[in-house]
């Protein structure tokens, strides 16, 4: 796809020429010397993806004029060092190379001894390069000519980089490439028919002079790329609803570290009088590409407490909903990772047939009771929690200028995911009555023996995952595991498995309460009330579809078997032969 963005190279170079031309030589050398997976490559990737989106946008009515505001915003979104890396990335990795192997070979065969040979070199470039590639190379050479005082040094680096493969180490070949490229640069005006004292400016200088040098969103994307990739999709939403300092505080409270690129901006804001009692630069970890250790989890703040106390009841309800969803997810995930996966493994014979027999459940029975359907719910909730992180990471009220508050954002998210939630919960709820009946039957026929040793939960946990677990029934395994997990301690298996069944009724209760509170605070004409009502309606529709699906399934069983097949019958059908 890099072929499609070659057309942007002249405009990128114009941007570099207009902003900080004095830094171009160093940036060119640094970018060429670093590997393709250098520390800047993540942001370069983001920049190139943005250009591809702009290219696609041309077909949707975006102006091809590089001075258009939407195009200017693209160039304004990244540092100059990123755009330098993007240009070299396009030259090196485009599927149809800007400088093809045939052109490289033709140039290396061209020996320039005197000015009269320039015509031969010009003909070689003109006849072998595509029009876009010819313009791109010409603009790059003109940029070097205009900004780099030491052209020999640049040629020694960029010549082999552009004209040879990375694997070529022969000194003569590298020297020839450097010589040819230096000649092209020093005679670029003649070779590419560029007016010597003119610069093609396609964007507003006034806009350039006032552009911000700080790109908080790009640094946060890089932070998540290195630290927590699943949150990359919410970067734009965070900055859409919250201020930079509030986001920084939320990131700090979650990770006890901050993006390296934010350091100077945060220090500047603190010096200007912005209230930031939590920010102590000398004691905070700043994440960059060379970070090899992270703060201990024990040092992470337990809970983000807003500096602005919530006075709105709706804000408290929103916090209650998102906290409840996170707690619910933690229960299910802990149950599956600590117990259900272990039971499935033992039932499948991973530690021997003796252990599988002692367990008292077959693989089919385990899957029917707490298998793939429960895992699907957990995967879906995990995706939703990523979206809800916009409300969790920063718990400050959203400024009124956005004409939306946290309740409105929550309602939008739940409306968006309601269908996906329904698809995840529908199979589980449909078969729940049978799986619960199977569990009850299995519990009735399983005796629990006294454990052999109780010296502490950690020792027990270590013990059962050794030889001891080979002789445990599924109930004894649950007893040992649940005692070692604070979230599960004191709970029964059926109390965990019924939670997904109760979840949609709980959503409806939450949003019924939120709807009343928002109506009381804002009235029925407020955008937030309309959003909450829409979310409430969507959740009701999904709940109705789930119930209809259960009824159809039961009717099908009555028609086929004369009755609804209960869990006890399924236990008989799925017992070992």
What's this model, at a glance?
The protein has 577 residues and is mainly alpha-helical.
| Straight-line distance between termini | 57 Å
Question: What overall geometry do the principal axes of the alpha carbons give?
Answer: elongated
Order of helices and strands: HHHHHHHHHHHHHHHEHEHHHHHHHHHHH
Largest sheet: 2 strands, parallel
- The number of distinct β-strands equals 2
User: Which percent band covers the strand fraction?
Assistant: under 5%
Share of helix, binned: 55-70%
Class by SSE composition: mainly alpha
Query: What's the average pLDDT?
Result: 78
- How many helix segments? 27
Low-confidence stretches: 35-39, 198-213, 297-304, 453-464
Strand order of the largest sheet: 1-2
Radius of gyration: 32 Å
Description of the structure:
By secondary structure, this protein is mainly alpha-helical. A two-stranded parallel sheet has the order 1-2. Helix 16 links the parallel strand 1 and strand 2. Helix 21 runs parallel beside helix 26, helix 21 packs across helix 27 and helix 22 packs antiparallel against helix 23.
Q: What's the arrangement of secondary structure elements?
A:
Blueprint: H1 9-18, H2 24-33, H3 41-58, H4 69-76, H5 80-93, H6 101-109, H7 118-128, H8 131-147, H9 151-163, H10 171-186, H11 188-191, H12 205-210, H13 216-227, H14 235-241, H15 244-255, E1 257-259, H16 263-271, E2 285-287, H17 313-347, H18 353-359, H19 363-370, H20 372-392, H21 406-444, H22 457-464, H23 474-484, H24 493-497, H25 499-522, H26 527-561, H27 567-573
Helix pairs in contact: 1-5, 1-8, 2-5, 2-9, 3-5, 6-7, 9-10, 17-19, 17-20, 17-25, 19-21, 20-21, 21-25, 21-26, 21-27, 22-23, 25-26
């Amino acid at each position: 796809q890099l072929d499609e963005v070659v057309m942007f190279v002249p405009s990128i170079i114009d941007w570099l020429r207009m902003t900080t031309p004095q830094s171009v030589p160093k940036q060119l050398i640094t970018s060429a010397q670093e590997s393709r997976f250098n520390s800047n490559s993540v942001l370069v990737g983001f920049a190139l993806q943005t250009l591809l989106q702009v290219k696609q946008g041309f077909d949707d009515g975006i102006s091809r004029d590089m001075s258009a505001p939407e195009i200017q915003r693209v160039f304004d979104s990244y540092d100059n060092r990123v755009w330098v890396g993007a240009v070299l990335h396009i030259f090196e990795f485009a599927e149809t190379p800007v400088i093809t192997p045939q052109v490289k070979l033709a140039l290396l065969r061209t020996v320039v001894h005197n000015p009269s040979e320039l015509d031969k070199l010009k003909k070689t470039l003109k006849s072998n390069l595509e029009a876009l590639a010819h313009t791109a190379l010409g603009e790059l050479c003109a940029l070097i000519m205009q900004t780099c005082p030491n052209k020999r040094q640049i040629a020694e680096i960029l010549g082999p980089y552009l004209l040879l493969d990375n694997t070529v180490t022969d000194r003569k070949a590298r020297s020839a490439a450097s010589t040819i490229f230096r000649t092209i640069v020093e005679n670029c005006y003649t070779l590419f028919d560029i007016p010597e004292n003119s610069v093609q400016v396609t964007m507003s200088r006034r806009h350039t002079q006032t552009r911000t040098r700080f790109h908080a969103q790009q640094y946060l994307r890089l932070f998540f790329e290195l630290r927590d990739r699943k949150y990359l999709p919410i970067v734009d939403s965070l900055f859409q609803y919250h201020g930079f300092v509030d986001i920084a505080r939320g990131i700090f409270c979650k990770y006890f570290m901050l993006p390296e690129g934010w350091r100077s901006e945060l220090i500047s804001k603190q010096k200007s009088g912005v209230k930031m009692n939590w920010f102590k630069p000398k004691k905070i970890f700043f994440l960059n590409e060379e970070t090899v250790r992270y703060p201990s989890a024990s040092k992470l703040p337990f809970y983000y407490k807003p500096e602005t106390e919530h006075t709105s009841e709706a804000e408290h309800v929103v916090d209650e909903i998102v906290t409840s969803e996170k707690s619910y997810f933690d229960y299910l995930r802990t149950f599956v990772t600590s117990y259900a996966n272990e039971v499935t493994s033992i039932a499948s014979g991973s530690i021997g047939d003796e252990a599988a027999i002692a367990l008292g459940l077959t693989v089919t029975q385990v899957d029917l009771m707490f298998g793939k359907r429960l895992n699907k719910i957990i995967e879906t909730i995990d995706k939703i929690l990523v979206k809800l992180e916009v409300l969790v990471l920063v718990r400050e009220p959203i400024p009124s200028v956005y004409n939306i508050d946290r309740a409105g954002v929550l309602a939008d998210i739940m409306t968006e995911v309601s269908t996906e939630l329904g698809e995840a919960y529908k199979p589980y709820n449909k078969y729940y009555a049978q799986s619960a009946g199977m569990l009850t039957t299995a519990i009735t026929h399983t005796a629990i023996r006294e454990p052999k040793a109780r010296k502490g939960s950690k020792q027990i946990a270590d013990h059962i995952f050794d030889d001891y677990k080979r002789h445990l029934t599924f109930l004894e395994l649950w007893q040992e595991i649940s005692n070692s997990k604070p979230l599960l301690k004191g709970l029964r298996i059926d109390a965990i498995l019924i939670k997904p069944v109760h979840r949609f009724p709980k959503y409806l209760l939450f949003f019924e309460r939120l709807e009343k509170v928002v109506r009381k605070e804002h009235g029925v004409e407020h955008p937030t009330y309309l959003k909450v009502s829409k979310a409430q309606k969507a959740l009701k529709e999904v709940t109705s579809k789930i119930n209809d699906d259960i009824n159809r399934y039961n009717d099908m069983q009555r028609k086929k078997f004369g009755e609804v097949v209960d869990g006890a019958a399924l236990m008989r059908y799925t017992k070992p032969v």
